[in-house]
Design goal:
The protein is mostly helical. 66% of the residues lie in helices and 0% in strands. Belongs to the sigma-70 factor family. ECF subfamily.
Length: 183
């Protein structure tokens, strides 16, 4: 046999059945610490947990008159916490997240293009003054970005030869008067 329950009979049942929490405020006062621990287990940040609990309690408050069994309020609020957290997580997939390092490199103000071109030309003139073997090693190591082993393989020499020749070449470049910084 199916019993039809009208809103008047629900109200009568609710008022006649004993309730552990006569008001929403009394429920929140009694259960907030426990519910906050549950919210904290769902989030990493205590502030986010408080916000999550507030949202779940707001949903519970809106549904307070529709909840027939107030003994099951904790389950209702926990479900609201979980559903709210899941919704937040889904929405956050496209949000920005805080991180330790900025994903964008810092923009360094570009210098005068004429000065940059002049420095570039001076660098090539200095490299062209190097002996052919040292010049080849410097170009392969620093312009082609090859490792010492790769440079040695390309030129058919040992890694030690590459290291010493590049070291001597850099020493000559440091001494080149065209490349000395303006002070």
């Amino acid at each position: 046999m199916v019993t039809v329950c009208t809103s008047a009979s629900k109200a009568a049942t609710r008022t006649t059945s004993p309730s552990a929490y006569p008001s929403f405020a009394s429920y929140v006062r009694a259960r907030q610490p426990v519910l906050l621990r549950t919210a904290r287990s769902l989030t990493a940040n205590p502030s986010d947990a408080e916000d999550l609990l507030q949202t779940a309690l707001t949903k519970t408050y809106v549904a307070w008159d529709r909840i027939e069994d107030h003994r099951a309020l904790d389950g209702y609020v926990r479900r609201a916490l979980l559903n709210t957290r899941t919704s937040q997580w889904r929405k956050r997939k496209v949000d920005e997240f805080a991180c330790d390092e900025l994903p964008e490199p810092e923009t360094v103000p570009a210098g005068d293009p004429a000065e940059q071109q002049a420095l570039h030309d001076a660098m090539w003139r200095a490299i062209m003054k190097l002996p052919a073997r040292q010049r080849a090693m410097v170009v392969l190591r620093y312009y082609e970005d090859l490792s010492e082993a790769q440079t040695a393989e390309v030129l058919g020499v040992s890694i030690g030869t590459v290291k010493s020749a590049v070291s001597r070449a850099l020493g000559k470049l440091r001494e080149d008067p065209e490349l000395t910084p303006v002070r």
